[in-house]
Specification:
The structure is a homodimer. By secondary structure, the first copy, chain A, is mostly helical. Chain A is built from 5 helices and 3 strands, in the order ααβααββα. Chain A has helices at about 15-25, 30-35, 45-50, 55-70, 90-105; strands at about 40-45, 70-75, 85-90. Chain A has a 3-stranded antiparallel sheet. The first copy, chain A, is globular. The interface between A and B is large, with 48 and 47 residues.
């Protein structure tokens, strides 16, 4: 299954699907930003308030990373004043069971309380 | 699902199950080392030959990381000369469907050839 993750020069292939997923989830707080967006569309301010420990810069970086990875969609509403809101894309929703599988595995090394 | 990943001070909790899984898979080549061990127990030399682009230091680091994460077991056989071999633990085998889910998601952003 993982053979194609090694490129022609026996280097990790950045297009390796596992690497793609790891890159989408890279960095502190990334999973938490996704978790927040499972509640529905959120403005930058909503997210900043829900995740007060993130600096604006880190939140901006994480949203850019998730948008580039196709997980998050940045939408500008037609209202006045215009509002930008962030939502999970279909790809982002498809990532939730993967995060669930990662959650379940990560929990497995600790006995149930 | 991800709320408990934020600690009491609204910082990412290192014991967050998703972080545990990400930490186990951290770093280049990690998934490839796991992939190689799905073929069966392997000595350090076997792994080094199968993954020639990894320096001994990187392979040593990855095996130490995976052993600490409970994914890989390091066994010393009773034979003479003693041989050390690496195998996937039960936890490691349980990680394979998670990697498969990550693989499937990572493949999804590219059209089938």
């Amino acid at each position: 299954m993982l053979e194609p993750c090694s490129g022609p020069d026996a280097r990790p292939d950045p297009s390796c699907p596992v690497e793609v997923t790891l890159a989408a989830l890279r960095g502190r707080w990334t999973a938490l930003v996704i978790g927040e967006l499972t509640r529905g569309p959120r403005s930058f301010t909503d997210l900043a308030q829900a995740l007060p420990a993130l600096s604006d810069k880190v939140l901006t970086d994480r949203l850019a990373q998730l948008t580039a990875a196709g997980v998050v969609d940045r939408r500008r509403t037609a209202s006045w004043p215009p509002r930008v809101s962030y939502t999970l894309t279909e790809r982002g929703v498809a990532l939730l069971p993967v995060l669930r599988a990662m959650w379940d595995w990560g929990r497995g090394d600790r006995p149930e309380a």
